[in-house]
Amino acid sequence: MTLPTPLPTTPAFRLDGKRALVAGASSGIGLASAVALGEAGAHVTLAARSEDKLAAAAEAMASAGMSVDTLTLDVTDVAATQAAVAARGPFDVLLNSAGLAIHGPSLETKEADFDAVSDLNFKGAYFLTTAVAKGLIAAGKPGSLINITSQMAYVGGIDRAVYCGTKHAVEGFTKAMAIEWGKQGIRVNTICPTFIRTPLTEVTFANPERVAWIMDKIKLDRIGEVTDIMGPVVYLACDASAMMTGTHLMIDGGWTAD
Fold this sequence. Notes:
Layout: E1 19-23, H1 28-39, E2 43-48, H2 51-63, E3 68-72, H3 78-88, E4 93-96, H4 111-139, E5 143-148, H5 161-181, E6 186-193, H6 202-205, H7 208-217, H8 227-237, E7 248-251
């Protein structure tokens, strides 16, 4: 029998020479994602509203041997975001983890809360993604654009009508943008985590009833940690996922398997 020559080789799970922009990078999933991209060899630009938190994160990453800089940015300011991305780009990778949750019964939703969550989770994500894509298209470069959504982008949740709506919306524009930019080699995908232990979820985990609901849904019988997101981030950012676009990675411990 004649063996195939040469044997296929696994694409590198590396990002050497790539530039990555991470929004919401000052803590939680965003910071973990930034570290994952930096460990894989990318130069990482940390973006968030808190200049002090960004500086501390960048110092820690640089001390660990990673290439990093910072960008103070509020993605709800669309004009400022577009200008900053145009000035600092093009970025080969976008990882957007900037997000907000204000939970409560849908009949009690305040318009101001609806606008605050929508402006960041949907509008901000939309225009940040298009800003990075514009830079790539102008430079004639391919790229990987990733938004962190949620398992709640595919199911409903208690007191989470507005949050679920915004995350469903990001999944929708992901598919449309992937179709539009596929010929330019620009991939657009999402990562959908279950409940992850971060500063943002502390209030939820302090509620015994909510914890019981969560543990009943997660088949792996444990709460998610930020380290559970780091591998998927590198996978979607690098050439190992070169044929993936317009879709999502569900990191939910089996929540949506029912």
